[in-house]
Amino acid sequence: MVAPEISTVRNNWQREEVLALFNQPFNDLMFDAQVMHRRHFNPNQVQLSTLLSIKTGACPEDCKYCPQSARYDTGLEKEKLLQIEQVIEAAKIAKASGSSRFCMGAAWRSPHDRDIPAVAEMIREVKALGMETCMTLGMLSEGQADNLARAGLDYYNHNLDTSKEFYGEVITTRTYQDRLNTLANVRNSGMKVCAGGIVGMGEEQRDRAGLLMELANLPVHPESVPINMLVKVAGTPMADQADLDPFEFVRTIAVARLMMPKSYVRLSAGREDMNEQMQAMAFMAGANSIFYCDKLLTTPNPKANSDMQLFERLGIAPEEYQVDKGNEEQAAELHQTIAEAKTDAMFYRAG
Ligand code: SAM
Ligand code: DTB
Ligand code: SF4
Q1: Residue 320 — pLDDT band, cuts 50, 70, 90?
Q2: Phi, psi at residue 318, to the nearest 5°?
Q3: β-pair partners for 135
Q4: How buried is 258 (Cβ within 10 angstroms: 0-12 exposed, 13-18 middle, 19+ buried)?
Q5: Which residue segments constitute the domains of the chain, with CATH numbers given?
Q6: How far apart are CA 228 and CA 237, in angstroms?
Q7: What positions carry a catalytic annotation?
Q8: What is the pLDDT of residues 270-289, one digit of tens each?
C-alpha cells in the first residue's frame, strides 16, 4: 500500500528516504508507483513529444556525454541555426505522426540575445500549427526567459543531469548553481519547467537519488521530468561506460513517480537500446511521456510505427491530440499513420 505520507506533493525530501524508496523489493516499489500514478493520471495514456535539433554541434561546453561538444570528435556534422521553413516542415510531420509537443534544441551554452527573434518566430509558427512548444537552448537570463515566454513558449527544458556531488565528473564549464538559476528564471517567467537528468553515466545510486531529490525539492515540481538513459556515443568520454542494470533504470522512474506524483515523467533518450519489455515496465512504473519519431537530437530513436505497434499491444493511447477543427486533411493523415501502425502490428504478430 502507498504510505499516506508519500501520497502528497512534497518539497522536503531527504536522501536517506529516497534511498529507502529505491531499495524496496522491486514488486513493492512498482506497486506503489503504479497506485500513485493512477491517483493523478490515466494509466493508459502517454504523451508524445518530438525533438528537432535547430542548431547542431560545435558547442563550447564540455558535457562528457554529449556528441555535440566541440571538444570531442564524434564525426557529427555541425549545422547553423535552421531556417524557419525547415522547422515548420519538421513540425508538420511530427503533428501528422500524432505528436502533441514539438521540442527544439540548440547546441548552445546559452542563446545570444541576437538569436532570440529567430527562435521567437519558430515558437509562433509551431504554435500556429496547433502544437505545444518546448525549447532547450542552454542557460537563460531572466530577460531571455521573459522574451521566450512572451513569444508563447509553453515549456523550457534544462536538465540538472545528475546529483550535485557527481556533477563535477560530468561537466566543468558551467556549475550546478548556473542550472538552478536558469530553472528559477524559467519558473518566474511563467513558462512550464521541463527538468530531469541522465542515468547510466557511472554514477552511484546515491547520485540518482540526489538528482531526484534536487528536482523534487525545487519550490514547484517541474511539470515534465525527462529521465534519459545515457546514449553512448563514440568519441565522447562516456562511449565505453558500463551498462546500468535495467531494473535500476526502472526503479529510477518509479521513484521519480512517487516523489513528483503530478509531473509527467518522460522515458527519454536511450529507448533505442531498450527492449519492449523494459519500456512496458517503465510505463508500469509511472512513465507517461516519450520522445517520439525516429530521431532524438542527433542520435536515433525508435520509429513512430514501432512505437504505435507497442502502444497497440499494451492498450496505450497517445495523450489527446488536438486536431484543429475543420482541418480534415490533418486528421486523415493522423488516422492513416495509426492505421498503418495497426497493419504492421498484425504482420508483426503473425511473424
Ligand atoms: N545545449 C543545451 C543544454 O545543454 O542545456 C540544450 C541541448 S542538450 C543536448 C539537452 C540535454 O540532452 C542535456 O542536458 C542532456 O541531459 C541530454 N543529452 C545530451 N546528450 C545525451 C546523451 N548522449 N545521452 C542522454 N542524454 C543526453
Ligand atoms: C532531454 O532530457 N533529452 C533530450 C531533450 N531533453 C533535449 C535530448 C536527448 C539527446 C540524446 C543525444 C542526442 O540525440 O544528441
Ligand atoms: Fe552543449 Fe548542451 Fe551538449 Fe552540453 S549538452 S555539450 S551544453 S549541446
Answers
A1: confident
A2: -60, 140
A3: 104, 156
A4: buried
A5: 15-340 (3.20.20.70)
A6: 17
A7: 59, 63, 66, 103, 134, 194, 266
A8: 999 999 999 999 999 999 99
pTM of the model: 0.90
Give bridge partners of residue 229 from the DSSP assignment.
199
CA distance 197 to 191: 19
| Ligand 2 pocket, residue 309 CB under 6 Å | no
In the numeric block, the cell 529505491 is attached to 22
- The x, y and z cell numbers of residue 279, run together, are 519500456
CA-wise closest residue to 186 among 213, 163, 154, 217: 154
- The values of phi and psi at residue 206, to 5°, are -55, -35
Distance CA 282, CA 12 (A): 25
* Centroid of ligand 1 to alpha carbon of 199 (angstroms): 12
| Cα 264 from Cα 314, distance rounded (Å) | 19
Rounded Cα distance, 267 and 80, in Å: 29
Phi, psi of 197 (to 5 degrees): -170, -170
The 10 Å Cβ neighbour count of residue 235 is: 13
How is residue 272 written as a grid cell?
Answer: 533505442
Q: Is the CB of 136 under 6 A from ligand 2?
A: yes
Q: Exposure string (b/e) for 124-143, b if CB count within 10 Å is 16 or more?
A: eebbebbbbbbbbbbbbeee
Atom 20 (ligand 1): residue with closest C-alpha?
A: 66
